[in-house]
Design a protein that fits this description.
homodimer, 250 residues, mainly alpha, Arc Repressor Mutant, subunit A, Four Helix Bundle (Hemerythrin (Met), subunit A), two-stranded antiparallel ribbon, 2 strands, 3% strand, disordered C terminus, DNA-binding
Chain lengths: 250, 250
Amino acid sequence: MQHEPIVKSSISKQIAEQLRHAIINGQFKTGERLPTEDELAKRYGVSRATVREALKRLAAQNLIRSRRGPTGGNFVTQPTHEELAESLSGAATLLVGLGSMSIDEIIEARRVLQGGCLKLAARHATSDHIEQARAALDRQKLTGLTDEAFCQADVTFHRALVDASDNGMIRFVMYAIIEALVPITNMVLSYVKERHEIIAIHEHLLTALENRSEVDLDQALNRLLDYLTETFQEAQIQRDGHKLAVTPQE
Amino acid sequence: MQHEPIVKSSISKQIAEQLRHAIINGQFKTGERLPTEDELAKRYGVSRATVREALKRLAAQNLIRSRRGPTGGNFVTQPTHEELAESLSGAATLLVGLGSMSIDEIIEARRVLQGGCLKLAARHATSDHIEQARAALDRQKLTGLTDEAFCQADVTFHRALVDASDNGMIRFVMYAIIEALVPITNMVLSYVKERHEIIAIHEHLLTALENRSEVDLDQALNRLLDYLTETFQEAQIQRDGHKLAVTPQE
DNA sequence: CGATCTTATTTGTCTGACAAATACATGTCA
DNA sequence: TGACATGTATTTGTCAGACAAATAAGATCG
């Protein structure tokens, strides 16, 4: 007797998978409308609720977007770079937040990968990129900035540097790494509060970029990451000391 | 008169967002069980169907997993490295597939980023990593392999090289880039069919790694990417020529 | 011609029900 | 007592049908 291979996963999940592949393989082109939910339900022989659960899975991946009304429906969308970068940084943040990625690893990754990225930037940077970075740096110099605002400008600055590499793929992955470092920068800022050093290093980076000096860029990057490593350890000690003082038990 | 800020997005999406933040902020720890769907429905004052659509959104992001029965429910899961890497490469593949990322960009990105990665690998590679790479390379040498199998072994080989860098963050992003190159490798394979050259270059790479020679690694990587660039153009010409011959109109 | 009203279509949500999986308690028989 | 079957409660999975809300296009009226 032959046993049919029983399918363990839920119907809605299977439908989501099928539709997903259909979209990726181009059977539904971007901008195109999927069949209506009723139609899909009939076609798969399931209820509309099940179809909808499948569609929501796709929506969560920014693969489709829905509109109501006639001419409405579920449309295949090309996820924007923003959205993809966002989901990517979300994943990276999660990895860091859940502690499955050490600080040292992130800094090392940044040292290695951003090093290459800056080399490209030295070759491809336009005055536009440099201006953007300059603007972000100027914002960091303002007095009275909250830590969050400072950190935000920090991200903007580094993104501008990455953009200068003029490479979409690199931009895609570097954004994630930069994002992953935000919590650390934030912690350093709240416990050590030495913005001027960060600003000085950024100035160093930007000047090196303006001069298109790969050596200087490398030097500046290492200076930044060394500084972060040091102060992060310091901040950690302070934080833990603080914590211990407040909650001595445990 | 004051107008309340009307909320445009659907209820299920909002609930998904709320739960998502609750999970990321650690209000629900990993492994913990969320309230039952009925409970959530009551708590948010919506129907169970709506709650379920929200939950499916989270499930699509591998944030929760569900089990039936008593002691069952929706559990917060720590996404595996695999799952995160998968969603990441899914995004990257999409970018490539939808043509918003050029081949040149990917190859350039790989040249720059993998270059740094291999430097790390030269320092950190263990015999274990090298053996894994060797095994994948041996598999590529088998005769009678389908293009898919060959390509699969190719990915395994490069992953082993990346693993040798011994850095989770780098692994995370490099996996995506490697994955993004798969369609291109595939196309090169189907139209040019020169596996021996790829194998030779891989041999070059592996030997360089065994000798921990950064210079050789760099040389081999450039050799590989130059080769891919060339043959890809060739393949493209052949394919387009073929297409034109078959469908001369348009 | 233009403004408004109606109407059809499609997604969003609700309700209530039953099916399926599954842990746990209970009972039965050796 | 111990192993095994059996029921039972709980929770997710799926279904069916309904109404609400958005919205584009046609119909109507001034």
